[in-house]
């Protein structure tokens, strides 16, 4: 049953605005929360400084060697082959010679992936999952707008299942649950050969979310081999001879943290417009939480409302009914000044100390 909305959260009537006000409304009441991405697999911008030019730009030299028998193929067919290559092989291919680098860099799909998904690309390489994801897979994910599980705007990828997802599903959906390999082996009594059927990787040291509602993070220095709990259930669930409640006691208690160690932010690229969206949160919902209009009883949905990320059109649709967002807009003088009640979290985009 849907929760009853408390007074002051939703407006009594729909708010209408002129089309020319839309951009100013988005700038005033919308913000991109940096914390969400930094609590997952994330690399500081300084890590990408030396990588970006070399990973997306061909050398300014004329090739002296070719691709051997592959040069006999039409360029269109060669590009089709490159699209089907996994990202690790494509990464290695660019290092063969200048000609190979030129043919890969000429692909529009490759340029878009390394321009807007470089953080995810680095995560795939460092977790050694890149060999299981093709350039076509990556590009398709970049161009998907909505969560594969609930249909809302999705700004994240769960790596083990390669699923475009929203923050709420990443946190709670059973399809995206991540467990340690040791925990899964114990629960399903798996042998070595059976464990090999599960896609796995070793987590990377870093700072990860513990509880997004309370905005808690944890520093993880050790590396844990993790797998998809959903995949394990599908493959080996019939082997269980214990009640579901007893099974749950065997699960690794770090499961909520492990979800974030296997996830990464990914922007959305709109092929029809050429525009990129990173997801926008509503400052009005953050203000409602701070005013205790919502969340006074610790309801999960109130934190989900604060954490929810929208595409531009989705935020404008939400704004029509979000009372606190409307009040922020009214106090901004048509977007000409910062609203006096604009939460610090919204204009900073973060609760935590800058890690750049």
From TrEMBL:
Name recorded for this polypeptide: F-box domain-containing protein
PROSITE patterns in UniProt: FBOX (PS50181)
Coiled coil feature spans: none
SUPFAM superfamilies assigned to the protein according to its UniProt record, in alphabetical order: F-box domain (SSF81383)
Domain F-box: 67-113
């Amino acid at each position: 049953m849907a929760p009853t909305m408390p007074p002051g959260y939703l407006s009594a009537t729909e708010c209408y605005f002129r089309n020319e006000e839309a951009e100013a409304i988005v700038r005033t009441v919308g913000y991109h929360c940096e914390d969400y991405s930094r609590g997952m697999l994330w690399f500081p911008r300084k890590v990408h400084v030396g990588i970006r030019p070399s990973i997306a730009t061909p050398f300014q030299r004329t090739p002296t060697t070719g691709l051997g028998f592959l040069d006999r193929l039409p360029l269109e067919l060669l590009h089709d082959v490159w699209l089907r290559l996994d990202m690790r092989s494509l990464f290695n291919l660019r290092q063969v010679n200048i000609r190979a680098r030129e043919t890969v860099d000429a692909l529009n799909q490759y340029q878009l992936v390394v321009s807007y998904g470089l953080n995810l690309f680095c995560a795939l390489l460092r977790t050694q999952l890149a060999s299981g994801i093709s350039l076509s897979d990556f590009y398709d994910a970049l161009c998907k707008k909505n969560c594969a599980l609930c249909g809302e705007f999705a700004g994240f990828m769960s790596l083990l299942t390669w699923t475009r997802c929203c923050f709420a599903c990443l946190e709670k959906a059973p399809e995206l649950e991540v467990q340690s390999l040791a925990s899964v082996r114990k629960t399903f009594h798996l042998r070595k050969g059976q464990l090999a059927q599960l896609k796995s990787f070793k987590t990377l040291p870093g700072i990860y979310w513990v509880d997004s509602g309370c905005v808690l993070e944890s520093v993880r220095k050790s590396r844990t081999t993790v797998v998809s709990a959903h995949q394990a259930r599908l493959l080996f669930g019939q082997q269980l001879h214990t009640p579901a409640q007893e099974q749950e006691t065997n699960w690794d208690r770090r499961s909520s943290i492990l979800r974030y160690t296997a996830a990464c932010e990914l922007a959305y690229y709109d092929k029809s417009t050429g525009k990129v969206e990173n997801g926008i949160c509503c400052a009005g919902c953050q203000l409602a939480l701070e005013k205790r209009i919502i969340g006074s009883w610790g309801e999960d949905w109130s934190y989900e409302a604060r954490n929810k990320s929208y595409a531009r059109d989705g935020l404008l649709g939400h704004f029509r009914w979000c009372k606190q967002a409307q009040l922020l807009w009214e106090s901004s003088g048509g977007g000409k000044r910062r609203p006096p009640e604009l939460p610090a979290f919204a204009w900073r985009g973060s609760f935590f100390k800058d890690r750049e």
